[in-house]
Write a structure and sequence with these properties.
about 190 residues; Rossmann fold; 6 helices; 7 strands
Length: about 190
């Protein structure tokens, strides 16, 4: 297992483009490591270039779970609500080779509010939500994935409190109010089932 999330994230951010900052990605790494005894897949909603998927992958290496990471994106949402753009699909073959994680992390092109076949019936330990930031899309993602997270598992959300994405905070606060709220670091907030 990696021992220093901050150093690992700093190196990774130099190799993989992304929208999440160092503080948020370091927190995601720490959250993933906190689940070393909780079996189940990690699900990354909103792949972009694969940064958060690689953070989840590196954070879970050596945790004895032989963890699978599924990253889902439809590549229709852009970088901000004011200036939408289509993102390009990352080359996951290159990412898998670079980070020595073939057979552990997979990209699924599709709707983040639909559970893909490889995940159906599997235990889910963590869902990182950084996909549709509008109320309707975020509600669909939460309603789809929240019931699938096993007890002790986590859901984490990016862009919490962002002025670019004003729907995120009130939607998350409303729909996650029955879970234990953890702290917010950078743009990421987490909740434990």
């Amino acid at each position: 297992m990696i021992t220093d999330c901050g150093k690992t994230v700093k190196k990774l951010m130099q190799q993989v483009d992304g929208k999440c900052g160092a503080t948020a990605m370091t927190y995601l790494c720490e959250l993933a490591q906190s689940l070393s005894d909780v079996p189940g897949f990690f699900v990354d909603l909103g792949t972009y270039q694969g940064r958060s998927a690689m953070v989840l992958t590196l954070a879970s290496m050596g945790d004895k779970q032989r963890r699978r990471i599924i990253s889902i994106d439809n590549y229709l949402e852009g970088t901000s609500a004011r200036e939408p753009e289509a993102g390009g699909q990352p080359d996951f073959w290159i990412l898998q080779a670079r980070f020595k994680c073939r057979g552990r992390v997979y990209l699924v092109m599709g709707d983040t509010a639909e559970v893909p076949p490889p995940v159906v019936g599997q235990e889910i330990a963590l869902v990182f939500v950084d996909a549709d930031h509008n109320r309707d899309g975020l509600t669909r993602d939460i309603e789809t994935w929240k019931p699938l997270v096993r007890p002790g598992g986590l859901m984490a959300f990016d862009d919490y409190g962002s002025t670019n994405w004003p729907d995120v905070k009130p939607t998350v606060d409303e729909l996650m109010s029955d879970w234990t709220r953890l702290e917010q670091k950078g743009s990421v907030i987490a909740f434990r089932r």
